[in-house]
Design brief:
292 residues; alpha/beta; Rossmann fold; Alpha-Beta Plaits; 2 domains; six-stranded mixed β-sheet; 13 strands; 32% helix; 29% strand; elongated
Length: 292
């Protein structure tokens, strides 16, 4: 049985204005996986990641990270986690090399050769002060700070938004390298769905503070299909289950299904016997748009 690195049940976070950032959310992140966290702005992704990092206290519900409640983590467990976000607060007057050295003091497993390798790979200027770095270079620095101790769990909140395509490619390769070398578990929130599709094993989609979908990426892609039906006759809207989205013209209809299986093909052929039926595989971005 696979161990769970993160497990939460009925997790809620309510703010003073009576709005829920999270509302009875469940999440299960398997050890050694890359878990892609999806959702529109304001869905609750960053709130969830901050609770995982013990930066926020939930209003109710239960959560375990590396086997303990985040609010009860000791130093040893905290040293097994890496964290990076697009709003990381860095010390502006330090040089990049000084910032990395300062960060390394807090980790018994800080790997200097590994850090130097990534500084070179991401072309990060060690002698520049943090305040003078571009947004992209600040994000590169935050990434290296998050992985320099080779964490068991890596929590990433929009980590690559300011990186150019080449640097993003290097970043994605670093995730794969971490997993292959040391079995690091990664939970990553990003609007770059093509990037998530390349590296994720599992997907969680949050909407209005609730977990709407949680499953392996391949299962999600195999169970979500777009079907286009073209006919010479006027098209009537079919009364079928599991329709996510439907667009209709006079002689065609395009339907996006969840929970797709071969029985639905038989139903469609029975409903539209003289029609052309095309089934299309969808990308993660297309699936996200269909669900949201």
């Amino acid at each position: 049985m696979t161990n769970l690195i993160i497990k939460a049940t009925n997790l809620s976070k309510k703010y003073d204005n009576n709005t829920f950032a999270l509302n009875n959310l469940d999440i299960n992140v398997n050890e050694g996986s890359v878990y892609g966290l999806l959702g529109q702005n304001g869905a609750g992704k960053s709130t969830l990641l901050r609770i995982i990092m013990s930066l926020l206290k939930p209003t109710s519900g239960n959560i375990d990270v590396l086997g303990v409640n985040p609010l009860e983590m000791n130093k040893s467990i905290k040293q097994q986690i890496g964290y990076s976000s697009d709003s990381m607060q860095l010390i502006p007057w330090l040089k990049v090399g000084e910032m990395l050295n300062y960060n390394g003091v807090f980790y018994d497993t800080w790997d200097v050769p590994y850090v130097e390798q990534w500084v070179k790979k991401l072309d990060l200027p060690l002698n520049k002060r943090v305040f003078s770095l571009s947004r992209g270079n600040r994000q590169k620095l935050a990434l290296i700070m998050a992985i320099g101790h080779r964490p068991k769990l890596l929590v990433l909140d929009e980590p690559a938004g300011g990186l150019d395509p080449l640097a993003r490619k290097d970043f994605l390769e670093s995730m794969i390298e971490l997993i292959n070398e040391s079995g690091t578990t990664v939970i990553i929130s990003s609007h770059l769905l093509t990037d998530l599709e390349r590296i994720s094993d599992s997907i969680g989609l949050i909407a209005n503070g609730k977990m709407q979908i949680e499953m392996e990426l391949e299962i999600l892609k195999n169970s979500t299909k777009q079907v286009r039906i073209a006919t010479k006759n006027n098209v009537l809207e079919p009364k079928l289950k599991d329709i996510l989205k439907m667009q209709k013209t006079e002689h065609s209809i395009t339907i996006t299904f969840k929970n797709w299986n071969n029985d639905k093909i038989k139903e469609l052929k029975a409903l539209f016997p003289d029609s052309i039926i095309d089934i299309t595989h969808l990308s993660l971005e297309e699936i996200f748009l269909a669900y949201t």
